[in-house]
Amino acid sequence: MNPIERLRALLNHMNPTEHLRALLNHMNPIEHIRALLNHTNPTEHPRALLNHMNPTEHLRALINHIYQIEHLRDLLNHTNATEYLRALLNHMNPIEHLRVLLNYMNPTEHLRALLNHTNPTEHLRALLTHMNPIEHLRALLNHTNPTEHLRALLNHMNPIEHLRALLNHTNPTEHLRALLNYMNPTEHLRALLNHMNPTEYLRALLNQMNPIEYLRALLNHMNPIEHLRALLNHTNRTEHLRALLNHMNPIEHLRVLLNYMNPTEYLRALLDYMNPIEHLRAFFNHMN
């Protein structure tokens, strides 16, 4: 060994053999000894210096199996080196990864949000409400409340129809029943407001009949079609019903009433092939 270098080694309180190794590696002996004191590989120490990197951080990168240049970038971005490595392993921009951590969000979910072209914040909201983020996105695209969208899905209902129900101030479940009955939901609602069976209400509309009159017919235990005929003939619905129960033409029944005759006696006269007026005279004279 060169005696001058040996003397320098001793003046630096350094092992002359290590001083020699440093020189053979074209390394500053002082840096070589620092590497040894830090229990680092002296060869890695100059690499750190060449990268303008703190050798201790260089060592951390090696221990974490991180590429040292990436570790350095991480430090320059003030991020955790381990998280930086996770970002790279997920093929994710480390800056985005950092933003996610600052928002207390799972970076993997953040990445899914970006891949689905959704807002990561909305993606997080979906997860917090135990909702599928894709369905949450559909809700936002339809300008609907994601919570209502979720209710629709839980009720096996089309979210668009659920929204229409809410806009019409109707119960979404009743709206769904209307659709299953092939009925206009607005008419279904009117039926409910009139305390009427929606199916009967629909029958009334199909018969081009006033649903209220249809309901009256049902309450009177009368065929709604006959009830309608009575209305069209401007006759009393109850008398129309009596005529039908007596197997009599309701028009004839009406004529009898207009002549102040008993419809039963009028019917007897017809069955006897007799003029009802003569039958009435006989009845008034107490004659057979």
From TrEMBL:
<dbReference type="InterPro" id="IPR011989">
    <property type="entry name" value="ARM-like"/>
</dbReference>
<protein>
    <recommendedName>
        <fullName>Leucine-rich repeat-containing protein 15</fullName>
    </recommendedName>
</protein>
